[in-house]
Amino acid sequence: MAASSPLQNTLTSKIRSSPSIQKRPRTDRNVMNVVLGDILFKTWYPSFYPEELVGHETERLCVCQWCFNYSKELVPYLAHVKMCPAKSSLPPGQMIYEKDEYSIWEVDGEEHKLFCQNLSLFAKLFLDNKSVFFDVTTFFYYLLVQTTYETSNSLPTRQVIGFFSKEKMSWDNNNLACILVFPPWQRKGLGKILMGVSYEITLSDLGRRGYLAYWSSAIAQSILAAPVRRTITIKDISNDTYIMYDDVMAALKEMDVFAPRKRADGVVVDKIKVRNWVSKSKMNLKSMVDPEAFVEGWVPQPSWEEAMDEDV
After folding, report:
1. Cα separation, 98 vs 250, whole angstroms
2. Which residue in 51, 200, 254, 305 is the catalytic one?
3. SS3 232
4. Are 35 and 61 in contact (CB under 8 A)?
5. Are 186 and 97 spatial neighbours (Cβ–Cβ below 8 Å)?
6. Catalytic-residue membership of 150
7. What is the mean predicted confidence (pLDDT) over 265-292?
């Protein structure tokens, strides 16, 4: 057996395990664990990595934290990360949002095809329903990037820690394809940033459950911030939160905050029930998305219906 090189030993000593997320992995995974940068964590689902490159059942796959290139062999991986062009450059695409250490970058799958393919392959390890990974040209990808500094004088380190993707053209305007915060950064409220920026009707039940939590938090914040003696309508809540009327009703029903009595012009929400829901859910009502943090001049990409309207 060949002796390990000093470089291999250095990487091995730096790899740290991520705290486990309460998720039962599928038994048919083709990759058991991934190393992203210096973090080792378990996968949840199989992905579409080429079997001739990754194998049928790989114990550990190394993934570049900057471009998501991958290798099951340590030496090629070390050689890549040492020279990766993305290491010292900005993330691909255009920055559209920035607040504190977090930013969102809009990436066109057609312009950055290889990056988006590698990102989708990696994401599939944690998504049960993401089947599109090769034809990325019809999607926009929105990267959640964390920027940190080791010291006040050091260069910034940028890490993609999650993303969501949207179809460029959708016949029914349900164009959100997937949304994900990578496991080592989950349970920190970061999904609210992605949800706040991406607000759309989702295509998956899992995504909808996540959005219900986001909607409920935003709606509770709106209701409890209203003056005590002011009567507010569902339309008022919808206008205040930018959440569609039907989604407001769905969230209120899920929260179980309707009062037993009804008015002639509609349902009544019990503020005490809303406060109890906030307390029971241990919900942080602080908004994770600051509207003022969007980059000036950025215009959201149009949906299919909007694009058709512009052509008429």
Report:
1. 31
2. 200
3. coil
4. yes
5. no
6. no
7. 75
